[in-house]
Amino acid sequence: MAKTRKEAPKGEPGAAIEMDGPLFLVRRLYEAGWDSIFENSAAAGSYRGPLRWEWGGPVRAFTSRSRAEALCNTLSERLLKKNLGGMNPFELRGDRLADLTSLEPDRLRGLLVDAGMTPPAAGKDQLRDWGKWWWAGQSQRSAKQRQAVLAALDRLRLYEVGELDPPAKRGDAAGSGAAAVLKGHARVEVFTVELLLWKDDDDMLPGYEQGWLDSLDPCVSTLGGLRLATFRDRSRAEATREALERESLEDAKRRGTPKEYLDMFVGGFGVETEHIEVEV
User: Fold this and answer.
1) Rounded mean pLDDT of 68-75?
2) Is 184 helix (H, G, I), strand (E, B) or coil?
3) Does residue 232 share a domain with residue 170?
4) For the segment 95-150, what is each residue's pLDDT rounded down to a tens digit?
């Protein structure tokens, strides 16, 4: 997994343009396997709950939501179809089967039976039931059958589109709404909250196939931190960083963490300033 971002296109930038409206940001989200990493990090007390599923790294921004959604769908489908490898789609995202598919369980079973598979028995509708089913039949399942399962999981997304509000007009510290245009593209300044102190004690990442690792490049900052949330306003990024740090520190104290280990929860998060590409 690379630790650097792609460089900006070479050349002389044109005149800056103001982007006072919202931008639509495509982000690479973290799959469920990252829980083991977040648990062994400064985010141990703040990664649980629905907020956890919103964390991710910025890929590209758009002035059009429809174009952002198109890229989001393309990237997600490409990753799942070409690089699923040893991944279990029922263990990637969400807490319930309904998080992965809009189909009722019986309708899902019917589609899989039509594709020549024997799904879990009626009543076994927990994600763990479907996860066990996937592993049990992995070696016998054809490529066409795997794609049938993925097609049915229409809510499974490893990328999402989020709205980036313009920065507040409070001076330079808040960030600028201007974007420098270069060869038909623009680059806008953003502020990304990142997790600085983390470790892969369970050796999860070495087990990933290269294509999957490459997809995670947007999630890793130039300093090796894990990107969590992106803003165009520095003050909102700093407020988010402070809230995460405070929540994690309080949780560590509640769990009786020895004082000598509390330092990792102080300064465990940071805010990275970067320029991301905008398609105008």
Assistant:
1) 95
2) coil
3) yes
4) 899 999 999 999 999 999 999 999 999 999 999 999 999 999 888 888 899 989 99
Q: Is 224 helix (H, G, I), strand (E, B) or coil?
A: coil
Do 118 and 82 have their domain in common? no
Query: What is the DSSP annotation of 67-97?
Result: HHHHHHHHHHHHHHHHH-TT--GGGTS-SSG
- Over the stretch 203-213, which tens digit does the pLDDT of each residue have? 888 888 888 89
Nearest by Cα to 183 from 62, 67, 19, 10:
10
- Amino acid found at 236: R
**Per-residue pLDDT at 252:** 82
Strand partners, 118: none
Contact 222, 4 (CB under 8 A): yes
Pair 187, 74 in one domain: yes
Q: Do residue 66 and residue 196 come from a single domain? A: yes
How many structural domains compose the chain? 2
Contact present, 218 and 57 (Cβ < 8 Å): yes
**Contact residues for 224 (Cβ-Cβ < 8 A; gap 6+):** 3
Q: Are strands 23-29 and 159-164 parallel, antiparallel or unpaired?
A: antiparallel
Query: The domain containing residue 147 runs over which residues?
Result: 94-156
- Is 275:186 a contact under the CB 8 Å cutoff? no
The answer as to whether 8 is a domain residue is no
| Single-letter amino acid code for the residue at 50 | P
Co-location of 77 and 119 in the same domain:
no
Mean confidence (pLDDT) of the chain: 84
Q: Are 234 and 177 in contact (CB under 8 A)?
A: no
